[in-house]
């Protein structure tokens, strides 16, 4: 519990975010998500020509999407090589935008580096499948 409250006080999570640390079922993996990619590896892909980011523990290569993003490329580049879960959620993306994520998924974080998709992880009511 101490761990969760420190995330709020550090400003990492907004106070309005509904989280629960109760054990939650972890959705089954699909083929595109089988590759395990570490935070360290993601951090190397942090430029306009090679841009990866993390949303809800999944890794996305959005290099080809930067120019297409309705919110512009600059905002995405702020999260290049980093976790963008809170930013993605905070900007209120539509169900269509959540579905669009699938196109870019190249893998997911190892279990010990995840925040959401792990037993006892943050359980967001609208976490995409
Ligand atoms: C791969 C990841 C992302 C995808 C597929 C995506 C997709 C989209 C889509 C389809 C829209 C149009 C509105 C909607 O349908 O919700 C949108 C708008 C927007 N996105 Fe993203 N987005 C991504 C990541 C992000 C991130 C990390 C941010 C960071 C804050 C962000 C910020 C915005 C903003 C500010 C808008 C509103 C643009 C406007 O209405 O003027 N997006 N995004």
Automatic annotation (TrEMBL):
SUPFAM superfamilies: Cytochrome b5-like heme/steroid binding domain (SSF55856). This is Cytochrome b5 heme-binding domain-containing protein. Residues 34-110 form the Cytochrome b5 heme-binding domain. Transmembrane segments: none annotated. One of its GO terms (cellular component) is membrane. Belongs to the cytochrome b5 family. One of its GO terms (molecular function) is heme binding. Pfam families: Cyt-b5 (PF00173). Keywords: Heme, Iron, Metal-binding. InterPro entries: Cyt_B5-like_heme/steroid-bd, Cyt_B5-like_heme/steroid_sf, Cyt_B5_heme-BS, Cytochrome_b5. The lineage of its organism: Eukaryota, Metazoa, Ecdysozoa, Arthropoda, Hexapoda. SMART domains: Cyt-b5 (SM01117).
């Amino acid at each position: 519990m101490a761990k969760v409250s420190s995330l709020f006080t550090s400003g990492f999570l907004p106070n309005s975010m509904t989280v629960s640390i109760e054990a939650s079922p972890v959705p089954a993996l699909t083929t595109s998500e089988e590759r395990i990619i570490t935070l360290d590896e993601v951090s190397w892909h942090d430029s306009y020509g090679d841009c990866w980011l993390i949303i809800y523990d999944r890794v996305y290569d959005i290099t080809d999407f930067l120019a297409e993003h309705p919110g512009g490329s600059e905002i995405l580049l702020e999260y290049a090589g980093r976790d963008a879960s809170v930013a993605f959620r905070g900007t209120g993306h539509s169900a269509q935008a959540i579905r669009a994520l699938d196109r870019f998924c190249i893998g997911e974080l190892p279990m010990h580096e995840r925040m959401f998709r792990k037993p006892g992880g943050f359980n967001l009511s609208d976490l995409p499948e």
